[in-house]
Specification:
4 helices, 13% strand, single chain, 3-stranded antiparallel sheet, alpha+beta, 79 residues
Length: 79
């Protein structure tokens, strides 16, 4: 008897995703969903619209953290 393959848990991060939901981005940053939306609204965190959906490019997280630290995002990604 074979079993169905296990599905990914909601907290499992897929490092290959190019666009993240607001919830996924917030989880990766260790902040709340509301704070993440506030960062998007203020322009501090880049986001894009895909139809009616709001998505955050995965590399925008490194860029945001880099600005917080005062370093370039490319040096964070390359590290």
């Amino acid at each position: 008897m074979t079993t169905a393959p296990a599905t990914l848990a909601p907290t499992t991060a897929d490092p290959t995703l190019l666009l993240l939901t607001v919830e996924e981005a917030a989880r990766r940053l260790g902040i709340g969903r509301t704070t993440c939306f506030a960062l998007i609204a203020s322009g501090e965190l880049e986001s894009v619209k895909v139809g009616s959906l709001r998505r955050i490019p995965a590399d925008a997280l490194a860029a945001y953290v880099g600005r917080l630290r005062g370093v370039s995002a490319s040096s964070l990604v390359d590290a």
